[in-house]
Amino acid sequence: MKAVLAFDQAFKNTGWALGTAEGPLACGLISVCPRRFDSLGARFLRFERGIRDLLLKHQPALVVFEEHRAHTGLQAAQVLGACTAILMKCCDEAGVTYMSVPVPTLKKFATGTSTASKALMVAVAKKKYPTMNIADDNVADAIHMMAWGTAQL
Question: pLDDT, tens digit, for every residue of 130-148?
Fold first, then answer.
């Protein structure tokens, strides 16, 4: 069975989910939040290490991530852009196919409306996948992306 690994990159914590067409297998968070005394690049090293570990451990057929077209905050946009570049680089190095999903497409897939709130995305994920530990909206989005990705295979 082909596995899909999905990532919801965020400013502090990146949600991830692994699954197949039969449903999610695992999910969690990669912390990219700066810590006291960190160098400027430490968050990106932690992110890359987390991505590489998951790719090596699970060897997915496809990686899916959220497509960020615009962001109002400069620092958040820079962090998300850097994380997307790192994710693509890691996938290319591992020989894993990747694709992005626009936010409205993901929301419509998960909830039926392209303008769903974070709270609705979390509620739908918890209802649909009650055995998964959905820590926050980033994990919920990653689970929805994983499901969307399995539909693309």
Answer: 999 999 999 999 999 999 9
